[in-house]
Amino acid sequence: MAQTSTTAERDARLVNARHGDVNPGEIAIGVIIGRTSEFFDFFVYAIASVIVFPRLLFPYVDPLTGTVYSFAIFAVAFIARPIGTLIFTEIDRAYGKSMKLTLALFLLGTSTVCIGFIPSYDQIGAGAVWALTLLRIGQGLALGGTWDGLASLLALNAPEKHRGWYAMIPQLGAPIGLIVASGLFAFFVGNLSAEDFFTWGWRYPFFVAFAINVVALFARLRIVVTPEYTHLFESRELQPTSVVTTWRHAGRQIITGAFAPLASFALFHMVTVFPLSWVFLYTEEGPARFLLIEAFAAVFGLIAIVLSGFIADRIGRRALLGGGAIAIAVFSGFAPAMLDAGFAGEMIFMIVGFILLGVSFGQSSGAVASSFRKTYRYTGSAITSDLAWLFGAGFAPLAALLLAGNFGLISAGAYLLSGAVCTLIALWVNQRLELER
Predict the structure, then answer these.
(1) Of residues 303 and 286, which shows the higher confidence score?
(2) pLDDT tens, residue by residue, 236-254
(3) Which of 95-99, 163-167, 224-228 has the largest mean confidence?
(4) Given phi > 0 = left and psi -120 to 50 = alpha, else beta, which region is 3?
C-alpha cells in the first residue's frame, strides 16, 4: 500500500530537513531516548504494582493476594501489546510513522498520567480496579505502536565487524529507565510519611513519565520524518507490511525469534519486579533501601550490556546468547535463595543477576532483527518483540511470586530455568538467525 503523508508529517520534514549523510551514531541517540522513555514508564508502573496498588486497590485481602492481583493486571499490558502492533501498523501504512508515533505516545502518556489520578478502592470501590485495568490495556496497546524501526535501521547500518556493539545500544534504555524510576520512588517513599506517600507521593513519578514521553516524542519525530531517514527506511525496505502477511511469510522466524531471547527476558523481571515484591512482603526491609540496591545493581547491568557488544563481535551473538542461557540456568538453581540471606545475599543476587542480564539482554534485539528478510523486518521485529515480552516477561513476576510463596524461594528459579531451556532450543531450531559476527 502506498504510504501517504499527513500535513503534520510534511511540515515536520521541512522543519527538520538537513543535508548530509545519516550516521549510525545519530540513529543510536534516537534509539536510546525512545527506549529509555518506554522503560521508565514500564518501571514506574512495575514498582507501583508492588508497593502501591496492593494497598490502594486491594485493601480487603492480605498483602500477598493483593500483590498477586496487582501482578495479574500488570500482565494485561503484555497481552494487549500485540493487538496494539496490529492496530498501529495499519495506521503506519496509511498515514506514516509520525502519525503512528504521535498517536501511540499520546495514548501511552495519557494512560500513564491518568494512572496517577486513580482514586483508591475505599473511595470508589471496584471502579478503581477496573479503571487501572483499562489504563493498563491502554499502555499495552500504545507500546505496540511505539515501534519506530530505528533499532532495525541501526542494525542494518552498523559496520559488519561491529554489529554486536550496535545491537546492544537499544537495550541501554532498560537499566537507565530503571535507575531513574527506582531513584525517584526511593526519594518519595524514603522522605514522606506513609500517609503522604500513599495519598499523593506515589503519583508524581507517573506525571514525570508523561513529561518524558513528550520529550521522547519530539526527539524521535525529529529523526524518523526527515527526508534522509525516509529515504533510508525505503531503500532498506524497512516499511510496514500487513501483520497477517508478515505472519504468513515469516511465521517461523517470528516464533523462534520470540523464544531465542526468552532466558534474558525471564531474568529481566526476576531481578527487577519479583525481588522487590519478595523483600516487600517477606522481610522487614523498607522499599526505599531495596530500590536503591536495584538502582546500584542496574549500573552493573548497564556496564554488562556495553560489554556484550564487545563479546558478541568476537565470538558471535549466537554463542553469546547460548552461553548466557546456560549461565542463567545455573544461576536459577541457587541464586533466588539469596534474597533470604540478608543485605549481603540481596546484593550478590542483584549484582550477579544484572550482570548476566546485561550480557544476554544486550544482544536480544540484534538476534530478533537479523532473522528476517528485509521486506518483513520492520513489522516482523515488532511482532517478535511483543511475543518475546509476553512469553518471557509478562507473567514472570506473577509466576515467580506464586511459586516462591507456595514452595519457597528456590522454586522461583524454575521459571528462569524454563526460559533458559527455551532459548537453547530456539537457537538450535532457528538456523536463519544471523548471530555470527
Answers:
(1) 303
(2) 566 788 888 889 888 888 8
(3) 95-99
(4) beta
Phi and psi at 55, nearest 5°, equal -80, -35
Distance CA 362, CA 424 (A): 17
Residue 221 cell numbers, joined: 519525530
First to last CA, the chain: 35
Q: Which three cell numbers stand for residue 159?
A: 559496520
* Predicted local confidence at residue 46, as pLDDT: 93
The alpha carbon dihedral of 137, 139, 145, 150 has a sign of negative
CB 312 within 8 A of CB 367: no
- List the grid coordinates of 32: 536510546
Grid cell of 247 as nine digits: 505472519
CB 335 within 8 A of CB 413: yes
Nearest-angstrom CA–CA distance, 387 and 243: 13
Residues sharing a CB contact under 8 Å with residue 245, sequence separation 6 or more, in sequence order:
376
Contact 171, 367 (CB under 8 A): no
pLDDT at residue 33 tops 70: yes
- Report the alpha-carbon distance of residue 235 to residue 370 in Å, rounded: 17
The DSSP call for residue 409 is G
Question: In terms of Cα–Cα distance, which of 392, 388, 368, 379 is closest to 147?
Answer: 379
Q: How many CB atoms lie within 10 A of CB 342?
A: 11
* Residue-by-residue DSSP string for 95-140: H-HHHHHHHHHHHHHHHHHHHTTPPPHHHHTHHHHHHHHHHHHHHH
- For residue 312 the three cell numbers come to 558478541
> What whole-number distance in Å separates Cα of residue 116 and Cα of residue 45?
10
Nearest in space to 357 (alpha carbons), one of 245, 227, 294, 267: 267
What is the torsion angle, in degrees rounded to the nearest 10, for the CA atoms of residue 127, residue 133, residue 138 and residue 141? -150
With cut-offs at 50, 70 and 90, classify the pLDDT of residue 204: very high
| Cα separation values, 268 from 35, 97, 103, Å | 15, 29, 28
Q: Decide if 229 contacts 148 (C-beta within 8 A).
A: no
pTM beyond cutoff 0.85 = yes
CA dist., res. 214 & res. 13, Å (int): 18
How far CA 101 is from CA of 14, 92, 113, 122, in Å, comes to 18, 9, 18, 37
pLDDT tens-digit map of 337-385: 888 888 888 999 999 999 999 998 888 765 655 667 777 888 888 888 8
Task: Report how far residue 82's alpha carbon sits from residue 91's, in angstroms, rounded to the nearest whole number.
Answer: 14
